[in-house]
């Protein structure tokens, strides 16, 4: 009854392909137009639970939509549009399959053995630098980027583990640490550490978890002092907005 008038998943896939054939992906305006058509289709599609997202979309299209969700501001049309796509992907049980390899990162203090590393900027990295990105979206993105054994590293040396610390996702942080993640890992460019991020963004539960796993208080304090000095010169860094319970309930996915 609830699906009356809704397009089937097969029709959805055909519609997406038809729209793809009308654009040139390398042109930003065309990608935006494509995303608008996809959003309309998502709002008019039956429950896609269990269907293969990669049957309907190419990897680059999925990444683009995820990035739009993570980069959007509250007054941006992509704020709701991107979140609807993320929810759609989760319903399809989509998880990221990173292009990763083993390497030793000499910039890390306790990194003597090779680890699985995926280099490149993901939606979670974008979210960490968007002051209007909320914890709910980041938690949803971690349902897609759920390879706790892989170090997703962007050009600043920031990792998904550090993003989890920044947003206070203590269960995600715990999952990383249980697989042997270094609680003192450092972002190569910014110098941020998990504990300094937890302190800086007022995440006491994460800070406690990191300390229980041996995070070095002195290293974190040194980075926190550096951040404070930088803020004196350049102004305070942003603090991510948190949704109230009412806002989370009303959020249009």
Automatic annotation (TrEMBL):
InterPro entries: Ankyrin_rpt, Ankyrin_rpt-contain_sf. It comes from the Eukaryota. SMART domains: ANK. This is Uncharacterized protein.
